[in-house]
Amino acid sequence: MVDELMFETKVIRDNIHGNITINYQIIWDLINTPEMQRLRRIHQLGGTFMVFPSAEHSRFTHSLGVYHLVNRIINEVIKEEISNYDKIVALCAGLLHDIGHGPYSHAFEDVFNTDHENMSQRIICEDSNINKVLNKYDSHLASNVAAVINHTHSNKLLIQLISSQVDADRMDYLLRDATNCGVSYGHFDLERLLRSMVVKDNIIVFKESGVHALEDYIFARYHMYWQVYLHQTANSYEIILNKLLRRVKELYENNYSFKHDINLLIPFLKNEIINIEDYLLLDESILIYYFKNFINEEDYILKELSYCFINRKLFKALDISSEQEGLNLINKIVDDTIKKNYFFEILQAKSSFYKYYGEINSQSINIITKDNKIEELANASNLVEAIVNSAKDKIELKLYYHQDYRSVLNE
Amino acid sequence: MVDELMFETKVIRDNIHGNITINYQIIWDLINTPEMQRLRRIHQLGGTFMVFPSAEHSRFTHSLGVYHLVNRIINEVIKEEISNYDKIVALCAGLLHDIGHGPYSHAFEDVFNTDHENMSQRIICEDSNINKVLNKYDSHLASNVAAVINHTHSNKLLIQLISSQVDADRMDYLLRDATNCGVSYGHFDLERLLRSMVVKDNIIVFKESGVHALEDYIFARYHMYWQVYLHQTANSYEIILNKLLRRVKELYENNYSFKHDINLLIPFLKNEIINIEDYLLLDESILIYYFKNFINEEDYILKELSYCFINRKLFKALDISSEQEGLNLINKIVDDTIKKNYFFEILQAKSSFYKYYGEINSQSINIITKDNKIEELANASNLVEAIVNSAKDKIELKLYYHQDYRSVLNE
Amino acid sequence: MVDELMFETKVIRDNIHGNITINYQIIWDLINTPEMQRLRRIHQLGGTFMVFPSAEHSRFTHSLGVYHLVNRIINEVIKEEISNYDKIVALCAGLLHDIGHGPYSHAFEDVFNTDHENMSQRIICEDSNINKVLNKYDSHLASNVAAVINHTHSNKLLIQLISSQVDADRMDYLLRDATNCGVSYGHFDLERLLRSMVVKDNIIVFKESGVHALEDYIFARYHMYWQVYLHQTANSYEIILNKLLRRVKELYENNYSFKHDINLLIPFLKNEIINIEDYLLLDESILIYYFKNFINEEDYILKELSYCFINRKLFKALDISSEQEGLNLINKIVDDTIKKNYFFEILQAKSSFYKYYGEINSQSINIITKDNKIEELANASNLVEAIVNSAKDKIELKLYYHQDYRSVLNE
Amino acid sequence: MVDELMFETKVIRDNIHGNITINYQIIWDLINTPEMQRLRRIHQLGGTFMVFPSAEHSRFTHSLGVYHLVNRIINEVIKEEISNYDKIVALCAGLLHDIGHGPYSHAFEDVFNTDHENMSQRIICEDSNINKVLNKYDSHLASNVAAVINHTHSNKLLIQLISSQVDADRMDYLLRDATNCGVSYGHFDLERLLRSMVVKDNIIVFKESGVHALEDYIFARYHMYWQVYLHQTANSYEIILNKLLRRVKELYENNYSFKHDINLLIPFLKNEIINIEDYLLLDESILIYYFKNFINEEDYILKELSYCFINRKLFKALDISSEQEGLNLINKIVDDTIKKNYFFEILQAKSSFYKYYGEINSQSINIITKDNKIEELANASNLVEAIVNSAKDKIELKLYYHQDYRSVLNE
């Protein structure tokens, strides 16, 4: 029975939600799989804690938080409009939605062509402890949970809970990231948002009285994007990591002989399909272990990038007005092609704090008016419309460069 | 000596700022005048606590808070760029800036043509305990303090501290009102705002890095206006009060014979200049005492409006698209001119959460860019520009009416 | 039907509990009676806001808070173990438990021999708007609600909700007073206390795992007693008030001719039974109005005490080791018997933050151990036992005196 | 010049203290050493985040917090009573006081006979980046900072700041641990404690008015000990770790052939003096990497303990009344000596939330009375005396055992 209750309800303390309650045995069993425990060793915000030191929280606590918010939305908003089976599917999907994330996913996926959503699906459906737990309760459960995470489930309400613009995922990470970063601007009124939600035609829409709470939420997202998620120093850290992994790949492909073993990375360096067992062996500890070894390698680029990454010798950034301006600058001050590739990067920050669809669907933020019409938030709130329009003009193009070029570039 | 220190520093607990420290004897002496203590009997938000019950804070605690923020800005931002004498002037002005407020000022001033700024000046400069305290320390102090409150002081920095768009007054009431109302949207990052302030050419401007904190502050003001200060039920309460006072005046002028004495109101009913002694006798207690007596009066309008006010039988509101539509509605459902005047009101909500001046002055919110140029916030932040533009379109025109007409108007 | 639902659920914002939800029409009707609205004009902590200025909250918001906590305990702890009828009785009792309080109850009751619990019962059962509302829903409701407030109801669980050592009343006022005073020490973990509660043999007991949360709660009470409730300056204010009312009574009995009318006090000055209509006319506004008039009276004592009260010229205090020492001091420095009576008071502070009963009842704080035995908190926690024992030794005996005697007493 | 100011003051956001300000270049240089950055990879609470998942904070953020509190105490309490040189010494000592901590220090030190205080001293004084930074500013600085950390510095005030019962270290970790664990009971009134401090005869003592704030602090410590620091599941995790390291050592000494290299542990397995370079290579990442490899080892004990540690298969616990009872139980249910050693542990919890010295020194908590006498807190507060006495009786003796023995032990 998928909704088997625990012998005794578990209550987990959390610095964001206070108490997280576990009623169902299946949730407890899933939490205790090695795959879930692995998420403790992956920071929620990757390298952002190099800028906001107290942002040390992991994908594990975030996953518990998403489970908790799915639970609250079901209990407080959806109530009877969902079957018990689908409720369990939603709770599992909330808990497992990030299970396929690897260490520093962004950079890692970019270099090694992995995809965390695809890995999540595979970890849930192929041979894993997660899969075993799900199968123990019901043979269709794994495919149902995976379908929610991959947006293919027939019940759109379940998908909306986990991935839409005001879903359990975004609501948890916004609060969690803001609180742990120690910033004041990412907070919004969770209780009021929840109270504004109603189910209409099997999607969650917001009562008109909740528009201000949504404006507040959009504003919180706006701020978190520009001040945390797109923070220049965090970007710099990400760029170094990307180049470092890229260098490892290049060297491996050129048969470079590494001083220390890099066994756990080998499967990713070969152009083969990764098996999930190998994938799950990776976490941030392993990468850091390798990077620290790389500091003693012969290859200057690998050595230097590893040193930069481990010891926070971060790339600096310069505002530029066009990509061409950036390229010209690089060409002017450096000849060596390898250095051009590895010590410079042009990056444009893009935020996605609100998306206008022009139609009502499970991804759009929808308002139900007093006379029962449904419209998108940007149509109901000229504030949101204004913020969205104002953000369109906001482009931040920057040239990131190795610190050694600071004096040259500041001339 | 105006800056005589207290024998022992006083620390006052406050639910907003934690600890408010009193170092100077003059501040302590001023706090203990009957004029300041009177502010304890005047709600900061007038009748708003009829809508947000826990908004029970007074102009007294707000005044302490303004004093505290003036003190912080001087100590943390202005530092040496102000003389000790002017510092004391600023602290006194912060503490006393609302000293001329009467009970339910808005409605009261509207009906009786009093003006709290003018009264503040008179209380400070004419014969009062406040004036005695100020004179005890320095014979020019009273006129200096009054000049700050009336915006005529030669040192514009002092004026800016007490009355500009990001001054100690607004910062305190925004936080205090939001916290006491129990709403989540009026909060902003006080610490960060303070840290962004610098003095430039003797006015306070904000560092470019503080733009996000200012956006947050403007957004908080925007929300407080639309959700608290312009709340329909609070407006309704204000309208009843206004009409009630107006009725008293009309009856008095028509030689109506009141059952109970209304002695303390008499000076206001005669068209003479009020002396400050009479003015200071009034507080909310007195008005409520009178209103409760009025419930037993003969005059139906006076009786009914008093009952509505005391027992929260509030006017309802209806959206209308033009004043003419409102007038037509009134004319359609009621014949009696007196009832038209006293049981109906057409009101348009206007917020003033940000004001664009088009020039740099001590009232505009000014940003100093990295290359040392000064520009107004709306020019530095396209978000603020967008919010301001969006608010221009926002007009809320409403017809407020006595509950008895509910069924007629809902037909 | 007593449990008639509202057409639309009302949500009231509160600075302590966030949102207070009103589902039942009867609760909304009760809130809107003049008797309940009167509580807005009575401070929860009497004159304590003269010491902690931001403690400006009223018995009205506290009453809403108690209603809210009764609601939460029923929904989250008691659940099905109470009938719907008794649930409504409990909610009404929570909301109305303080309805009989007058302005500055302590002093008032002491001088005029009124009793707020008795008045509550009468307001609920005799001819009042409250009574009308209750009767409209059910003819036995008033007597049931009164029985809960007077501890005579047959269902002990209902009584325990409103008046025991960890009841909705104490939990609300502890949090509300601490938050509004701006102190840090009165807070406790409400969520954890609620989660520790279980119903056993129709009384609420606490799981053993909740002992630490209870220790925390007792500690919070301990601190609030010694630092807020028994604060010397608050005591001083109370003493002045007491003497002031006593003087009014004495003068009245001696046929003193008051300059201004004191009509609303007359019923209390005659030694007759008060009718509730007269009782309900009083609030703090009225008393302050009278006291301000008294400042202009002939009688020196009345005049002076009124001035002290209104303008915060508070009595000072001196530690003394015995009542005799205090009496000797008074006799040494003053001859006039009237002054002895009205300008001096000897007071011993007593706190009652935990009471040990030596048996299990609905008043004692009861722990249910893992092996299902029930014992009192002081037996289950040697920390609480220790605190209680330590407090026994704590005696604070003080002589309070009019400021004019300061120099004499400090010699 | 040791007190060289930074070109631009750095402000670091922190989820506990809000803003941490860095004024001195030397502090910024120290923060950016690899030795300090290494602390990011060591959890402040070791394995406690296995019980309180959100307790994911590191020794790095704690070290910043201690620096911050030392800075506040100097600026707000000590002020002019310390030389600028000693101020820098104190700030450095605050920042570096945990620099010698290794991963999971408790267990690690127990097994490998290392000592983090000794390692701190060596890292500061021997050849390290930390030492280079300190020497760059002043040749005596390293020895001075080390002397503070090792309690041998001649200025006792400096030692007291970093290690006494109410020092910057304890105050930071109490707030930080409580907040990150998401518990409500470890909080105390930091602002009030700071305001109570005064310097007297070159030690910090507390004003009598601060006794309640200290009682609150002691109570917070008491709760954190019994509910977090001595939490059974955290103990269990620690025990497994201890046994796991012990097994590695035993196997190594018996020339067991490990499948994967354990290079970085070798220096600790040989009974030689560790050089600091080897010591600093270790962090939690490395140990976890090794433990994950150990899951594939031949040796059953090593394999199993590693599995338990990595996958949260924790030891269970049983209350026992004496060590002998525990030993008897073990002997009764298991024969194999190795299993007896590695799958069982008898542990007695001891808290040390307050220490009474019976004399005034820089370690005791000292109260200065109004008549200028100094006495220990337990003498000034009968509440603290009571708590201390009550805790003496509190003994928790437990038998921890591998989960496989659960059914046998529950018979």
Helix content of chain A: 40-55%
Annotated CATH homologous superfamily of the domain at 5-196 and 209-217 in chain A: Hypothetical protein af1432
Amino- and carboxy-terminal Cα gap of chain A: 70 Å
Number of distinct beta strands of chain A:
9
What general form of chain A does the structure show? Answer: globular
Q: How would you sum up this structure, described in words?
A:
- The structure is a homotetramer of 411-residue chains.
- In chain A, β3 (197-200) and β4 form a beta hairpin.
- Chain A has a domain at 5-196 and 209-217: Hypothetical protein af1432.
- The mean pLDDT of chain A is 91.
- With 411 residues, the first copy, chain A, is α+β, with helices and mostly antiparallel strands.
- Chain A has helices at 25-31, 34-38, 59-78, 84-96, 105-112, 116-125, 129-137, 141-149, 156-162, 168-181, 190-196, 211-229, 232-253, 266-269, 276-281, 284-294, 300-311, 323-333, 337-342, 377-380, 382-392, 406-409, and strands at 5-14, 18-24, 197-200, 203-207, 316-319, 344-349, 366-368, 374-376, 396-401.
- The longest helix of chain A has 22 residues, at 232-253.
- The first copy, chain A, has a 4-stranded mixed β-sheet with strand order 3-4-7-8. In chain A, strands 5-9-6 form a 3-stranded antiparallel β-sheet, sandwiched between helices.
- Chains A and D meet through β1, α3, α10 and α16 of A and β1, α3, α10 and α16 of D.
Set down the secondary structure blueprint:
4 copies of one chain form a homotetramer.
Chain A: E1 5-14, E2 18-24, H1 25-31, H2 34-38, H3 59-78, H4 84-96, H5 105-112, H6 116-125, H7 129-137, H8 141-149, H9 156-162, H10 168-181, H11 190-196, E3 197-200, E4 203-207, H12 211-229, H13 232-253, H14 266-269, H15 276-281, H16 284-294, H17 300-311, E5 316-319, H18 323-333, H19 337-342, E6 344-349, E7 366-368, E8 374-376, H20 377-380, H21 382-392, E9 396-401, H22 406-409
Parallel strand pairs in A: 4-7
Antiparallel strand pairs in A: 1-2, 3-4, 5-9, 6-9, 7-8
Helix pairs in contact in A: 1-4, 3-4, 3-10, 4-8, 4-9, 5-13, 6-8, 13-17, 16-17
